[in-house]
Amino acid sequence: xxxxxxRRHALALFTTAATAQETKILFxxxxxxxxxxxxxxxxxxxxxxxxxxxxxxxxxxxxAFVNLEGPFAEKPRPNSTNMLFRVQREMVxxxxxxxxxxxxxxxxxxxxxxxAGIDLTLEVLxxxxxxxxxxxxxxxxAHAGVVLxxxxxxxxxxxxxxxxxxxxxxxxEPRIALADVAQMRVDVASLxxxxxxxxxxxHHGWEYYTTPNGHQKMFAKAAIDAGAAVVxxxxxxxxxxxxxxxxxxIFYSLGNLVFDQAEPAGTKxxxxxxxxxxxxxxxxxxxxxxxxAGGAPRLTA
Length: 301
Hints:
It is a single chain. It is built from nine helices and 14 strands. By secondary structure, it is α/β, with parallel strands linked by helices. The chain has a single domain (24-299), classed as Purple Acid Phosphatase, chain A, domain 2 (4-Layer Sandwich), CATH 3.60.21. Strand 13 (281-293) and strand 14 form a beta hairpin. Helix 8 (181-191) runs parallel beside helix 9 (214-226). Residues 1-16 have low confidence and may be disordered.
């Protein structure tokens, strides 16, 4: 009797997996909507211009995710050439046009518009129905993650950054989730109570290095070991390798997606990563190369 019940249970599980719907999640890298990108959008008289050409690719996905590299600001700096990224709120149109569902707001530029910029960024994204992972009204919200349901499966997103001060602050802003391994493990375990699949965004690594450093590897693998299915990285501004690890997949850096960097040459190339789930099980991974011209991306293959 025990053997018969086990076989029936196994058959039921097989049938469920075979009939479960597919969910495709598309990940992009750093999206910086200030400086030269903002000036180009103004020249085209189109706030959506930076993401307009790539938008159909993102809209085909069930969930679309990018890292938002820079906060929205009441006093943006579209003509600035420095390292403070303060984004005009109308530039959110590009994210909306591309159908972006979730962004990471946990990165080293998160405080570029001060405390008010964190609040305004959350407000502007909320107005467009875009979820923000990695920042919040307080520590708890920044670490709670966000959840989207697709095809009957709940997908949870957490986001972390190695630094939140960008050389401009000496204190700690609790509303930005830092890449602390112990806290991340707690967050993943908590989010697993609300979502069948957990995805961790990691703003980490050395800029312009094409290989991940030890800190990236440690954090990413710890996230998978804690129960995440996908770790998606950004910040180096160049593409780094990806790998399958245990039951998950790690993209150490997808490079830039929207940016006005000219050098080094690798900053003009990036990857899109498409991860397919059948039900809550990771079933397929593929990448698509992009190149950036004038700040805007396009597929190259």
